[in-house]
Specification:
The structure is a homodimer. The two termini of chain A are 37 Å apart. Chain A is α/β, with parallel strands linked by helices.
Amino acid sequence: MTFKIKHTDGNARIGELKLRKATLETPFFMPIATKTGFKYMTTKQIEQTNTKCFISNAFLISLKPGDLLVHDFGEIHKYMNWHGGIFTDSGGFQILSEYFVNELTDEGVVFTDPYTKAKQMFTPEDSMKVQQRIGADVIMALDDVPHYGKDREYIQGTVKRTYEWAQRCINSHKDKSQKLFGIVQGGTFLDLRAESAKQIGSLPFDGFALGGLALGENDSEQFSSVKVTVDNLPRDKPLYFMGLGSPEHIIECVGLGVDIFDSIFPTENARHGTIFTRDGPIKITKNKYLNDFSSIDSEYFCDETKNISKSYLCHLFDVDEKVGLTIASLHNICFIQCMLDDCKKAIRENRFDSFKDEWLLRYGTTKREVKTKK
Amino acid sequence: MTFKIKHTDGNARIGELKLRKATLETPFFMPIATKTGFKYMTTKQIEQTNTKCFISNAFLISLKPGDLLVHDFGEIHKYMNWHGGIFTDSGGFQILSEYFVNELTDEGVVFTDPYTKAKQMFTPEDSMKVQQRIGADVIMALDDVPHYGKDREYIQGTVKRTYEWAQRCINSHKDKSQKLFGIVQGGTFLDLRAESAKQIGSLPFDGFALGGLALGENDSEQFSSVKVTVDNLPRDKPLYFMGLGSPEHIIECVGLGVDIFDSIFPTENARHGTIFTRDGPIKITKNKYLNDFSSIDSEYFCDETKNISKSYLCHLFDVDEKVGLTIASLHNICFIQCMLDDCKKAIRENRFDSFKDEWLLRYGTTKREVKTKK
């Protein structure tokens, strides 16, 4: 059994996910090493943020340095010198961006390789082949990801295609030691989400993911979409919310029953000077922090961010030392991981709801310097 | 006694330098945190390169975040969260660059503050005051640093002014727990170097430095200048070569009797893709390294750079992931520290000369991809 539920508290739960290279406790958050590199952070530093698993992008890796190269090297864990878990995303979201896509058909996606300028077809079967070569612990089915704001008819089409592609992915998934997750689409149309959840949930995936969310919908749309998905999926498999990264959304979704998260949100914000603190996000680039000698966070920290003062970090941003981006990024990742540790403690003690309310009250009570909700 | 010589082998030696916050074994190399930040590296990462001491720039710190701020915070060790030794340079070299300097007089330097645009006078006394506030273990006298290529008459003037300023620095040096080093000038005019060494060496400094070198002179000029300085300085004090950072120059100068080094050379080269290896420097951005699965260096490495392959580092540069600059910088610093460890071992075993010859032969025998000699 890949996934074991160890404790539940309402919909929130603690699970154990056994992968071929790591055993992970859920809920967990995955930072992103898009093309096998974390932005401004080494793999070693990521280890120190209490991160046990990250996600990389198989499609982008297939372009550079190449899935064959990574395979020949000894697969991605060895290539990146990482001893925990690794997911790869199929790259459905990226390949369907304006930058790459030429044509989307039932067969697959025709995209332009930005390096060779060649037009190429990328199918669900290609995605499986590429991800198997790269060798992550968990790979994702190729899905048809709609942008936010598409109409019902369009979304209906993506649900249908996502289901067809999911079956093709299952059929070309050979090495069962590598786990395969299916992705639920449906935009914020709750009936379409339910339909997609039922379809994808009927297939023998090792886990499921919420796709096409955290793309601009409001909180109520997002949480309703999660709920309807949870209600229509088998609950004995792990559930992964793709692309969710703001602390307050993660904590809400843990309460709704989500087990796994990933997002560029913590690090992208960090690079723009937004630092998560227990009392809400702050803009560390504000001049007043030069004279604030307190720690960036005295409760949520890792070895790399312990004893770093607001003054020092503000100064590094001020004089444009890029190591400021490193420290801010490590801190925001570490913050999410520490928050999830607190979540797990609360779940174990059957007090998740009150914990969540208190946590959010404190995070939101001070006059917010920065709005992090999308 | 601040400095104890533990072992000598010819002019090369191992010493123990007792500072107020650290006891350091010489010879050692100091990476540079110009404005209290290392370029692309955290203080924590620098620790892992086997670095025990670094240097920062007091003049630049006085502009931002301000020497008073650093003082109020609890001085520079606390501000940067560093538990080893710290030197500050007076900033003589920087303040006399075209970017800052307005007028150079016997009294001091009139410079333009780039942030406030105000013209300000900076005297040897100011330099001492600023460095005492910042609170490094070792501070440097303010000197008059000539650019390379100046004529004899000009250099003669800088020797005279450097001596006068040195005396003023000694006179305004109050806290004797903070060690003060004097700087020898003289360009590559050997008689002027000798004169400057005698003058500076006659003053009660805790150590001495070679200034105004590694600025464009050839090897023979550089080594002769070092020799004549060594011959004319008291040898019971530590000798610091300011701004020397190429592996082959450092190893030669250890042989000539230099104890301390600092330079941006290893990290600046790293950021341009030049990686030191035992078999000479390589240009990691070359396409061929994508397919080279060997370690960037299998002999000289630290925790952060161990098991990093040439392929992975080449790829990070290729896709412009800045963490490649981090890894390359850490490696080049670590390389110098490992080389100095080997130097110390050889000195202890009284075989420094043959060690140095073998080391240089191997470093230089392969067809050089990159010329690192200036």
